[in-house]
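Hi everyone,

Forwarding the result from last night's run.
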Amino acid sequence: MKTKIWVGVLFYSFLGCANKAPKSNLTSKLDSTGEAVYFIEDTVVDQSAGLQVIEALSRVYGNDPNSIGGFIGSPRCPSFLEGMFFDGSTLVFQVRGDTAHARRILESTAGSKAFRLEQVTESNYSQQQLMSIVDELNQRFDTLTDKKLKNNMTSWGVGLRNVEVRFILNTPEARQAFREKLMDSPAIRFEGPEQPIIDERIGITDTLGISLHPEYSVYSTEASTASFVLLNQGNKNIMCGEHYFITYEDENGTWRALPINDAAIDIGYMVLPGGHHLFTANLYPEVHSNKPGRYRFFYEVMLDADTPLRHDILMMTEFRLTDNKEAVKRAIKMNIPKEPEGYGIRYVPVQEESAKENTTFK
């Protein structure tokens, strides 16, 4: 899945922007025990002067005089201008070559000095350069045949100073494979956990007539997916979606987050009383070598959605993986209760990766 991330690149979305934008600062205070407590404190920065400069340059350099922003790279824009972003309240232009010459031209055109220049160098990439790198990366990704590397990449795009590539599991082996099979550039920065993190959360298996179950009693360690059944035997409608996470118990008895792609479409499924929802979760065995043992599947549901009485419940069910092929063949399928006669019609979209790819009976 390709996701383009624009961090600090504001020139595509100035139209309709407010003059003041929030800025988050990390602040710390001491609590009653003397421990430092960190929290995000939002302040407001005034970017109106910079926005006026962008508006003035858009009228001169842009392809459409009625459109604000998006003029960098246009035929009328000076070739020395390769990017722009806000550093707090200050507008910053990325310039190649003579900055004094560039300042004179930009000040004269904008009728303002309310900006700062940043020179593009070998180690300081412009937004234009980073976008070119991402365009090339997109083309190479489309022809990549290494399934392990491809499935390990969750997103990539232009950051403020780098091209940022995020892995499900950011291991030295993954970074090396990327450099050898896709692209080796000092402009690329890798993100993601290097090893599965500890996650000892627990959820609820059965409450208010709502319960969560694995569809099969056991799955293969080679299985690409596992399926789960959410039953609503209560007296209220419940809402669920596409987001989930999985943990596993390691050899030391510590529960850790199973590395998966946690990006999902925000979509809601309504499950009426007496109904059920069948959900397929990806296990990514090609990214993380899944061992035999205990696993937990977590799935959030909502009661009284879109009302002041909304109640979120984190559901959980345990399931097992095994490398015993005979045990997998003998796996017992859950008997899902039939929906009552007259049950409301509901539309359940088909997921991108269908259940037929499940290697439960491999």
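DSSP finds six helices and 18 strands in the chain.

Cheers,
N.
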